[in-house]
Amino acid sequence: MTTTQLIEQIHKKRSFLCIGLDVDLNKIPKHLLEEDDPIFAFNKAIIDATHQLCVAYKPNTAFYEAYGLKGWEALEKTINYLNTNYPEIYTIADAKRGDIGNTSTMYAKAFFEDLGFDSVTVAPYMGKDSVEPFLAFKEKHTILLALTSNQGAFDFQTEIVEGKELYKQVLETSKTWTNSQNLMYVVGATKAEYLGDIRKIIPDSFLLVPGVGAQGGNLQDVCKYGMNDQVGLLINSSRGIIYASQNGDFAQASAEKASELQRQMEAILLQ
Ligand SMILES: O=C(O)c1cc(=O)[nH]c(=O)n1[C@@H]1O[C@H](COP(=O)(O)O)[C@@H](O)[C@H]1O
User: Fold this and answer.
1) 169 lines ligand 1 (CB under 6 A)
2) Which of 23, 60, 97, 197 has the fewest CB atoms within 10 Å, counting from its CB?
3) Which pairing describes strands 164-165 and 160-161: parallel, antiparallel, or unpaired?
4) Range of the domain at 211
5) Could you read off the pLDDT of 53-101 as tens digits, one per residue?
6) What pTM, to 2 d.p., does this model score?
7) Residue 175 and residue 180: Cα distance in Å, rounded?
8) Ligand 1 centroid distance, CA of 211 (Å)
9) How far is CA 177 from CA 5, 119, 173, 181, 266, in A?
């Protein structure tokens, strides 16, 4: 999906919500464990109940890799289900990859070509030749970790390197890479006060913003400092939506949580 198509969907649905499909078998309703593929059964129910309220889904691959082959199959079924039934949905493989060039090309093939995701999250630590292989894919986005939501973001990302915070170096340098128009960036919702500075460096880029809900980030603050003329935000919530209930009504309960966020987003868009 192109950025223009994503923006169209945001305006159509009056939502820039991304729902994180971080499926933990210890947290899903017990009756689903009797299904052949409990992870996919859970995802399918959540997607069917929430797809009109969000523009994107983000399965974090760790939650699938942890269950071995069965987990990877559930990931494959989930992305196929989305691409077949809801092609208007933007999809993010949250895999946080990045390696030497030829290896990055294989990661990119895995997520863009084999699985068919629109985007993948990538760590910038190995630099230009580890990220450009992802950027070479047309109509696919590479979502680079810039300033993350966790406490450890202060270990390296905010350290001053040659007179500037490292995350600012990442933003500025990555803009010079080949096909940088295919970049988006991760900025944690818990770091909303940094968004003003970030927007000075990358005014037009889309930001994936995780950390509302379970991690305590504030939607209003993120929008105040991070929104641009094209909206420019995908705000993710995972646990806060998908684990709204552990009973038979779990899908409806997740839709109610998603709807709460969508209504707040709609109000902001209409301001
Ligand atoms: O890349 C991410 O999506 C990500 C970056 C970041 O800085 N912080 C962060 O929480 N995430 C991911 O976003 C999701 C947040 O989940 P919840 O805290 O349950 O909403 C998880 O899949 C995290 O791995």
Assistant:
1) no
2) 197
3) antiparallel
4) 3-270
5) 999 999 999 999 999 999 999 999 999 999 999 999 999 999 999 999 9
6) 0.98
7) 6
8) 6
9) 24, 17, 7, 9, 35
Catalytic residue among 96, 109, 224, 257: 96
Domains held by the chain: number: 1
Atom in ligand 1 nearest the alpha carbon of residue 96: 1
The Cα–Cα gap between 19 and 43 comes to 11
For the segment 150-173, what is each residue's pLDDT rounded down to a tens digit?
999 999 999 999 999 999 999 999
Q: Which two tokens stand for residue 191?
A: 């770091």
Mean pLDDT calculated for residue range 231-250:
97
Which tokens sit at 186?
């991760």
Helices (H), 86-156: 101-108, 128-135, 153-156
Average pLDDT, the chain: 97
Could you report the predicted ipTM of this complex, rounded to two decimals?
Answer: 0.99
CA of 17 to the centre of ligand 1 (A): 14
**Whether residue 157 has its Cβ less than 6 Å from ligand 1:** no
% of the chain residues with pLDDT over 70 = 100
Please indicate whether residue 200 is annotated as part of the active site: no
